Amino acid sequence: MSLFLFVCICFLWHNGDVMAVYAIGDLHLCFSRPEKDMTVFGPAWKNREKRVLKNVRKLNEDDVLILLGDHSWGTDLENSRPDLEYIKNLPGRKVLLRGNHDRFWDAKKTDRLNREFAGDLFFLQNNFYPYEDYALVGTKGIAFENLCTYEQFEKLRDREEKRLLTSFEAAEKAGFRKFIMLLHFPPTSIGEEESCFTRIAEEHHAEQVIYAHCHGTERHDDSFKGMVRGVNYSLASGDYLKFKPIRVL
Ligand SMILES: [Fe+2]
Ligand SMILES: [Fe+2]
Q1: Distance 12 CA to ligand 2 centre (A)
Q2: d(C-alpha 130, C-alpha 174), whole Å
Q3: Nearest CA to 228 among 190, 249, 196, 201?
Q4: Contact at 8 Å (CB) between 135 and 171?
Q5: What pLDDT digit, counting tens, does each position of 166-205 carry?
């Protein structure tokens, strides 16, 4: 065996040194609220805490683990602490996005969360997370689900659009030109071919959009999957992934 080949094998053997980015959403943890038992929605949710632990055990401390929202059923920060503690103890650098159920996370108080959990958890809101020459940018987003009037939806969508642009601008200002865009909600409402979120992804040449929120086989095709107009879309809701995070980079 040539020395070159031997060195290559040794390098690959230590591939733990090569960093990677993974993503999953919707753990819907309920350590403080056992009454929020998700198995009422089917066996797909059974033992998800243990399954996630098993599926991330090979991650390195330098890997990035993106959690795409709906982390906790907690009613406030105190109530969500056991759920956040569980996430804190997962391997890798944890980057969290807000989901529609995350009552512990007031968007306006994101800086406070980032100070309190500095070094353990990064809360992505109106900011970005650097990974090599990529910026992870994002916001919760929104899709129309008939849960409010269309006018109310438009208001929420406009706010989320601004938040997403703020995240991109912060990353661009810091010199980043390569982007992975994160949303909790799907990028389009059912039946839409485009939205302000897909337009922003295209205009900023985001390589990928990763989103979650859609649960149950009847919702897994709500929006894009795969390449659309130069952007690669992936659904990463926990039940869709069988609670095994997808590799993003
Ligand atoms: Fe969810
Ligand atoms: Fe959600």
Answers
A1: 38
A2: 10
A3: 201
A4: yes
A5: 999 999 999 999 999 999 999 999 999 999 999 999 999 9
Measured CA to CA in angstroms, residue 139 lies from 59, 99, 120, 130, 209 at distances of 25, 9, 20, 15, 11
pTM surpassing 0.90?
yes
H-type alpha helices, 89-129: 110-116
Taking the CA of 26 as reference, the closest ligand is 1
Tallying the residues shown for the chain, one arrives at 249
Pull the structure tokens for residue 137.
């940018």
Q: Partners of 67 in the beta sheet? A: 24, 96
The predicted structure's pLDDT at residue 3: 52
> Counting ligands in written order, which one lies closest to the CA of residue 185?
2
Closest ligand to 38 CA? 1
CA dist 85 and 101 (Å) reads 18
Return the SS3 of 58. Answer: coil
Q: In which element (H, E) is residue 213 found?
A: none
What is the C-alpha to C-alpha distance for residues 234 and 76, in angstroms, rounded to an integer?
Answer: 30
Cα(5) to ligand 2 centroid in Å equals 48
Distance 243 CA to ligand 1 centre (A): 13
Contact call for residues 136 and 124 (beta carbons, < 8 A):
yes
Nearby residues for ligand 1 (ion, Cβ within 5 Å): 26, 70
| Token pair for 150 | 């269309």
CA distance 165 to 183: 13
* pLDDT < 70 regions, the chain: 1-17
